[in-house]
Amino acid sequence: MFYRPSEGHGLPHNPFNAIVSPRPIGWISTRDVQGRNNLAPYSFFNAVAYVPPQVMFASTSSKPDQADTKDSVANIRETGNFCVNIVEYGMRDVMNASSAPLGKDEDEFAVAGATPVDCEEIDCARVQGAPAALECRMTQIVKLAGESNFVVFGEVVGVHIRDDTLVEGRFDVRSFQPLSRLGYHDYARVTELFELVRPG
């Protein structure tokens, strides 16, 4: 089949997210200027540069108690800080619970059962026990076409790695099985690897 997104796909469910998959999940923690923690998963997330290390995530909707976006972007606009927590298979239910549509004054850490611990380089909480966490300072927020589409870019200024994920000097994803987002309500986990060496 072929379809033009502007004209609709004619299927029972939108296939776009299923086509662009698997996608890593950025479990974004922020803290507002009043000191309230926020935690939310975003599947439009990735690393974008090595030197300096940089990441991005996109927020694509808004909520009634924020002007044009969600709590994560609103908090980052105010403070310039955010932390990316890596989601392991064992924390799938906690991650999912943190996606609940809560008010900006409600703490997703508490609601979902995640334990906050302060970051080292930024004024923000991270998820205790996450396989890794990237402390970030926002470099820019880009408004995309669409009503509430924003991409947040950040420089990684601190990296936490859980000790048991380091195997012979490598960050071994098999030790925690990272969760990835597929289409619809589907997820996958990484359980095995293979290696390809680039030519030259």
Automatic annotation (TrEMBL):
Domain of life: Bacteria
Flavin reductase like domain span: 20-175
Pfam families: Flavin_Reduct
Protein name stated in the entry: Flavin reductase family protein
Organism: Roseobacter sinensis
